[in-house]
Specification:
single chain, mainly beta, eight-stranded mixed β-sheet, 1 helix, 38% strand
């Protein structure tokens, strides 16, 4: 239980400390600004537990540069959307500026599901994308957060 808590706390710290701006946004907020060449990372977000999400749940998927071990991840793009009554898996597509990609860096996709500001599910593994032979498409399986302590 303590190890799980430590992993979740570390993940929250990394995501919470990351800057929120990434690719210059187009008017309206999604995707790169006009005149900016964009590529994309796609995939789906799901979890194994047989529990329905409330319609108010919010799914956040983030593309980050995780190359620097001693510094917060740099956000390159993100997609945030409400469940709106839908259930997993949720498809996602994150646009990013390929000019910001460096071949010797490592990039990953992270995801979380919150409801009413309470974290319900989060990725607990690194899902590498884009460089070093990694794909541009990933299937994320999130883990539940919290719950009753086991005796």
């Amino acid at each position: 239980m303590i190890r799980t808590f430590a992993l979740v706390a570390a993940a929250l710290w990394v995501v919470g400390c990351a800057p929120t701006a990434a690719v210059p946004a187009a008017p309206g907020g999604t995707g790169p600004a006009p005149g900016t060449s964009a590529a994309k990372v796609t995939g789906s977000v799901g979890y194994l537990q047989r529990v329905a999400l409330p319609p108010t749940a919010v799914i956040k998927v983030v593309l980050v540069d995780v190359s620097r071990a001693d510094a917060p991840a740099i956000v390159l793009g993100e997609q945030v959307f409400a469940a709106g009554g839908r259930q997993v898996p949720f498809p996602f597509e994150i646009a990013y500026d390929p000019a910001r990609i460096q071949a010797n860096h490592t990039y990953a996709v992270q995801a979380r599901i919150e409801d009413g500001g309470v974290l319900r599910f989060i990725t607990d593994q690194r899902h590498a994308v884009i460089t070093r032979g990694a794909p541009n498409q990933v299937e994320l399986v999130l883990r539940p957060v919290g719950g009753a302590a086991k005796p």
